Amino acid sequence: MSIAIMCSGGDAPGMNPAIKRFVDYVYLKGKKPYFIYNGLEGLIDNSIKLAEHKDVSGILHKGGAIIGSSRSKRFYEKSYRQKAYKNLKRYDINSLVVLGGDGSFRAMDVFNKEFDIDFMGIPTTIDNDIAHNDYCLGVDTALNVIRDATDKIRDTASTFKRGFVIEIMGRECGYLCAASAISCGAELCLIPEVETDLELAEKILKKEIEEGRKYILCFVAEGTKKSDFMVEWISERLGFETRKSVLGYIQRGGNPTVYDRLMAFEYVVKAVNSLCNKTHLNSVVTYQNGSFSYCSIDKIANDKYELSHNISDMLNYIG
Ligand code: F6P
């Protein structure tokens, strides 16, 4: 039996520890591990190779993914999916582990319905926006990157008595922004899922300013598209000279944290076990309420992620 691993969509820290564990564990199970390079694009272009232990030595601590990743428009076309299937058959690969987000799982849902390839998904995206799943690989590292950057921005904000709008990634999902705002002690936070009561925030913050508050940190999720609006708002309503800092792609990089390494190992072992034992096939390994489970690819692909109430409730107390 041959099992391949592929990264798809936006890369996230945790991919390399997962790739390493995959190779070591598949050999341990007496099977052959294959790499598919550059995601779905590489699958179409036959960028496939038998993995060796030496390929994965010294990669555990690295961000990114040594096998690359991509977003593929060609995979939407049946003729390219047919090509991808033929490539897998050349190497006798009948099982696939995919590290990716909901877009990648939707693609695999279609592929899996058309061809006899068993699939297991591992939620991997800093956006943390997979339905029926609390934790995606890469999120802890991204949160720590944001915390580190915010600590530095706070140094200049407090010295210069300024407002700062910090724009956070996450596509349509506000998890990364909200969790960062809470853990970094921001005064304001705007995410797509929750309406912020700016009138109330203004009242509270004006009082704090009267009592001596010297700076304002405001976190804005990219999905709200309100960063520039908040720069104006803080300047006009609160009277602070205000700057914007878009953290951008540094949020996707960095050495995976201990938590992401451990989670990567667990996710991979569960995915490979499923493929070897033919249990929970064609599903995504999920992590909910502190334990691992499986969710059908169909459900994951079609249901929408919801922000946990713990996070949205906590947002009411900031400011
Ligand atoms: O999905 C991860 C992510 O980094 C999002 O947070 C962001 O909106 C998007 O990818 C950026 O996409 P791209 O890599 O195509 O620029």
Provide a descriptive summary of the structure in words.
The termini are far apart. Helix 1 (15-28) runs parallel beside helix 9, helix 5 packs across helix 6 and helix 6 crosses helix 11 (309-315). The mean pLDDT is 96. Strand 7, helix 7 and strand 8 (216-221) form a beta-alpha-beta unit. The protein has 319 residues and is an alpha/beta fold. The strands form 2 sheets. The protein has a 7-stranded mixed beta sheet, sandwiched between helices. The chain has a 4-stranded parallel beta sheet with strand order 7-8-6-9, sandwiched between helices. The chain folds into 2 domains: 2-138 and 256-303, Rossmann fold; 140-252, Phosphofructokinase domain (Rossmann fold). It is built from 11 helices and 11 strands. The structure holds 6-O-phosphono-beta-D-fructofuranose.
CATH topology of the largest domain, by name, is Rossmann fold
Poorly predicted regions: none
Q: What is the strand arrangement across the widest sheet?
A: 3-2-1-4-5-10-11
Bound molecules: 6-O-phosphono-beta-D-fructofuranose
The termini sit apart by 56 Å
Any idea what the radius of gyration is? 22 Å
Q: How many domains make up the coordinates?
A: 2
The major pleated sheet works out as:
7 strands, mixed
Strand content: 15-25%
> What general form does the structure show?
elongated
Helix content: 40-55%
What is the annotated CATH architecture of the largest domain? 3-Layer(aba) Sandwich
Q: Count of helices?
A: 11
| CATH class wording of the largest domain | Alpha Beta
**Mean pLDDT across residues:** 96
H/E order of the elements?
EHEHEHEHEHEHEHEHEHEEHH
Number of strands: 11
The structural class is alpha/beta
